[in-house]
């Protein structure tokens, strides 16, 4: 697992993507490696997530450096099935 700063918030619409872009820009100028990982995305899948795509395009990242774990619908199904531990394990494996 990567070590370094992480942007997180416990409320929706908290402007995390804006904070992430600013932080990534600062780090990108001074670090050897920068990446972006979103554990749960709103889109149909990680490949179509707008924020991950924006970071990928802006910094010319490949899929391994700007990725997402699962969709909100997938996470919801796992919670309903009582398999919340699977959410964490899948995200760690994808990260």
What report would you give on this structure?
The chain is α+β, with helices and mostly antiparallel strands. It has helices spanning 16-30, 50-59, 72-80, 84-94, and strands spanning 36-41, 66-71. A two-stranded parallel ribbon has the order 1-2. α2 (50-59) links the parallel β1 (36-41) and β2. The model has no long low-confidence stretch (mean pLDDT 80).
Describe, in short, the structure shown.
Helix content is 47%, strand content 13%. It has four helices and two strands; from the N terminus they run αβαβαα.
Indicate the topology.
Layout lengths: L15 H15 L5 E6 L8 H10 L6 E6 H9 L3 H11 L1
Parallel strand pairs: 1-2
Count of individual beta strands: 2
What are the secondary-structure elements, in order, as H or E?
A: HEHEHH
Which whole number gives the mean pLDDT? Answer: 80
Radius of gyration: 14 Å
**Which range best describes the helical content: under 10%, 10-25%, 25-40%, 40-55%, 55-70% or over 70%?**
40-55%
Which outline best applies?
elongated
Distance between the termini: 7 Å
Structural class: alpha+beta
> How many H/I helices?
4
Low-confidence stretches: none
Strand content: 5-15%
Strand order of the largest sheet: 1-2
**What does the largest sheet look like?**
2 strands, parallel
């Amino acid at each position: 697992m990567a070590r370094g700063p992480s942007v997180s918030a416990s409320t929706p619409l908290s402007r995390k993507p804006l904070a992430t872009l600013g932080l990534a820009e600062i780090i990108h100028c001074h670090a050897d490696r920068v990446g972006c990982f979103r554990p749960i995305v709103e889109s149909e899948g990680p490949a179509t997530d707008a924020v991950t795509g924006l970071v990928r395009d802006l910094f010319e990242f490949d899929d391994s450096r700007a990725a997402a774990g699962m969709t909100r619908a997938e996470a919801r199904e796992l919670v309903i099935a009582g398999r919340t531990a699977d959410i964490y394990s899948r995200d760690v494996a994808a990260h």
